[in-house]
Amino acid sequence: MSNVAIAVDLGGTNVRCSVIDDAGRVAFDARQSSDAAEGVDAVISRIARMIDAAATDQQIGASVAVGVAAPGPLDPQRGIVRYAPNLPGWDEVPLRDRLEELTGREILLGNDANVQALGEFHFGAAQGVRDLVYVALGTGFGGGVISDGKLIDGAGGLGAELGHTTVNIAGPRCTCGALGCVEAYCSGWAIARHGQMLAGTDRSPALAAAAAAGEVDARAVADAAEDGDAAAAAIIQQAGLALGAALGNFVNIFNPQMIVIGGGLAEIGTPLLEPAEATLKQFALHDMLDGVELRRSRLGTRTGLFGAAALVLKR
Ligand SMILES: [Zn+2]
After folding, report:
1. pLDDT in tens, 205-240
2. For 253-300, how does the pLDDT look when each residue is reduced to its tens digit (9 = 90+)?
3. Which residues are placed with Cβ below 5 angstroms of ligand 1, an ion?
């Protein structure tokens, strides 16, 4: 391989590590549990060992850099993870410097959703596009914006937190403390929370049964909706409407050529995305809407890995 990068995608559940070249070929793919409960040092040591194993396996020299996608908010310039809701104990962690010490390699760090946007832009559904809005629908609602070929991340590298844009000033409380963020409707935790509240009423037999059998998560709500439970279907539809309103805002602000939707929650498909598309058409200014293409992610669960490689290969 000519020009390669080692790519790491750190999440609350798993750490993934790949070797990817500038043509998008994946030569190595490893995954381990993050085991975040073991603490910050243990997670960082595990990542360093995975990087070393990838380098040994692919006989990669010490001059090859590593791109790391990590949960944020983080400071990409100083290489510090400020905190991470899904990594307990992570508070102002100098992840870049720690990994550079352990591996002897140059480390480039980026916020996971911003990095995913780069992945779609360089290797995925948005190749050849100059202006992209990417949204990642997972446990949270992440986003990244590329304008005229450049990632927009603001003065401190903390933008673009698209999930915490308001779609209802009198809406439900979000994890960020504000009211009516799109994430408080259209995210894994929000759909689960609405489902759990519904399970305690007599309006959803399917979710009451799911609660009795275990935990009500977003998947349970989506399954109940698919099986014809009207109250569960209303939660998914509301999430889709909120998503569409947010996408309409993003179109009006950024005038993108393309919107790419990624993340596990997007697997719900039509019941979520159809109301979103209808609302987008209603809320976006029509002059800008005409040129916008709405697409699903092409890279799936590897979007973050490709983006991490892009941090190195496309800098
Ligand atoms: Zn919020």
Report:
1. 999 999 999 989 999 999 999 999 999 999 999 999
2. 999 999 999 999 999 999 999 999 999 999 999 999 988 999 999 999
3. 164, 174, 176, 178, 181
118: tokens are 């780069």
Spatial contact of 314 and 273, defined as CB atoms under 8 Å apart:
no
Ligand 1 centre distance from Cα of residue 82 (Å): 17
Give the end-to-end CA distance of the chain in Å, rounded to a whole number.
Answer: 19
If you measure from the C-alpha of residue 180 to the centroid of ligand 1, how many angstroms do you get, rounded to a whole number? 7
30: enclosing H helix or E strand: strand 26-33
286-308 in b/e form (b: 16+ CB < 10 A) is eeebeebebbebbbeebbbbbbb
pLDDT band (50, 70, 90) for residue 2: low
Burial class (CB in 10 A: 0-12, 13-18, 19+), 54: buried
* Model pLDDT, residue 1: 47
Q: How far is the CA of 166 from the centre of ligand 1 (A)?
A: 8
In the sheet where 141-147 sits, what is the strand order?
A: 150-151, 141-147, 132-137, 258-262, 293-296
Which domains are delineated in the chain?
4-118+302-313 (3.30.420.40), 128-297 (3.30.420.40)
Given a cut of 50, is residue 308 above it in pLDDT?
A: yes
